[in-house]
Amino acid sequence: MKNSAGRQNASSAVSRRQLVKYAGVGATFVAASPLAVAAPAAAASGEERGRGGGSHRRAWRAGDHHVHSEYSGEFDTSTTPPTFHKGADAVYPIVTNAIMAKHFGLSWAMCTDHGGPTHSKVNLELAYPDLLRSRALVPEVLQFWGMEFDAPALDHHTLMIPHHSDEARQLFELESRFAKYDAFPTDPGRNTEAKMVEFLKTAKDMRHKPLVIAHHASRSATGLGVWGQDTPREFRNGNNAAPDVYVGFEGAPGHQAGPLLGRARGGYGSHPTYGGFDQMTARVGGLWDALLGEGRRWWITATSDSHVHWTRGGSDFWPGEYSKTHVYARQDYADIMDGLRNGRIWVGTGDLVTGLDLTVSGRHGGAAMGETLVLGHRDRDRVDIEIRFRPQRGENANGDRPQVRRVDLIVGQVTGPGSDLDADTNPTTKVVARFGPGDWHRRGHEQVIRHTLRDVGSDLYVRVRGTSTDEAEPLADGLESPWDDLWFYSNPVFVEVR
């Protein structure tokens, strides 16, 4: 585990100016009428500026698909039906989250409130009208509808509903039929893996296909590879049932501000995160690589899981303040969902970089994140890899100017599905090259790295990560400030040899 600096040093990493600024902003936005609040302008991402950035052309657009509002409340089950009370677990109105998302440069966000007995009705009758008002008040941020789904037999998941005229009714149908805690009285028959698979198959057959992404997947793990509520078998069975719906898990969970108040990063109290990332992602050759090695299109994201800001006693950053999920898409609901569904995603913390591109090329074409490069027999002698990243040019939300110290190129073989549904390693996955500042060159506002793979004889995938630290591999997290431990990860590019 990393050397713990303790609460005093962790807190001192955030300047008094920043603390006062965000505590004041948050309090003002909660207390004021939304109509009276003048929201600060969102900063367009560097990558968006560099590519022209219009809403009708694809660019890297940062977002957050795991944000809680005051509708993550509590239920009084002494009454029939249960009585809902707002603000028990998360405290901010939906529009407050949207304003803060805009403030921290997000182009899209999603309200994902907890369920409970008859919560489907709360979503339909109370929360959804507030979402519509928030969309009108903060139109610069695309605000998806959905929830933090109480997945049968599993921990929480994002359930993202496509934007359409009947989106509220679609969520109501799925939540009321399948969320394990929605029934009143409680129905134990809902909390089974078979029910989860039934839910995914139902979602897959809908005209408007939702997306399902696992939250804090190994938060209940008690050791490295000692899985808790979520298991490799369940991920495989779910992905088999609905491969275009059940598409990934959070690589970097929320609650990243915990160490600033002496709490475990991410809320991972039984076994820690590594550089802020879940062990399923951070361990080279671990579960994520095992799934990719089967050829699964299984992606990672990064979220805030915002409930209560750390300056008000919570463990959270605002949406976009620390973690971002960047999707290559138009500023359009459908295209952002398409990017999430198809892996046009990279993730980062602390705005260490504001743009990242990974391309893999042969003689007759190339592919980017989420895509597949097909090599003919005569093209196997070389595959060219280009990594481009855009460093932070100004200050991040903590007032820092973080620097990239290293970028790693990671390659694993794709061997197809195996017979062991519990497998959680891919021994073929390796860091094949490490690059420092002397290994990249500047082109405009970007830094460029090039590398060549020789004699590619089998199917594989390529992914990259980078860090502000000098850790060869991300170490188990203690109470160091999250602002001193920044990482970014790409999603993979696949290479298919014919």
Task: Give a structural overview.
With 498 residues, the protein is α+β, with helices and mostly antiparallel strands. It has a domain of 346 residues: TIM Barrel, CATH 3.20.20.140. It contains 11 helices and 22 strands. It has a 15-stranded mixed sheet that branches. Strands 13-12-15-19-18 form a 5-stranded antiparallel sheet, with no helix packed on it. It has a two-stranded antiparallel ribbon with strand order 2-3. β7, α8 and β8 form a beta-alpha-beta unit. α4 crosses α5, α5 runs antiparallel to α6 and α7 runs parallel beside α8.
Overall pLDDT level: 91
CATH topology of the domain at 6-351: TIM Barrel
Largest sheet: 15 strands, mixed
**What is the percent of helical residues?**
10-25%
C-alpha geometry: globular
User: Radius of gyration from the CA trace?
Assistant: 22 Å
CATH homologous superfamily identity of the domain at 6-351: Metal-dependent hydrolases
The second-level CATH architecture of the domain at 6-351 is Alpha-Beta Barrel
Low-confidence stretches: 4-52
Helical run tally = 11
Number of strands: 22
Task: Give the topology.
Blueprint lengths: L5 H7 L3 H16 L14 H5 L8 E9 L6 E3 L6 E3 L8 H10 L4 E4 L7 H19 L4 E8 L7 E5 L5 H12 L14 H12 L6 E4 L17 H10 L4 E7 L26 H4 L4 H7 L5 E4 L20 E7 L3 H9 L3 E5 L3 E10 L2 E4 L3 E4 L6 E10 L14 E8 L16 E6 L5 E3 L2 E9 L5 E8 L19 E4 L2 E5 L1
Parallel strand pairs: 1-4, 4-5, 7-8, 8-9, 14-22
Antiparallel strand pairs: 1-10, 2-3, 5-6, 6-7, 10-11, 11-21, 12-13, 12-15, 15-19, 16-17, 16-20, 18-19, 20-21, 20-22
Helix pairs in contact: 4-5, 5-6, 7-8
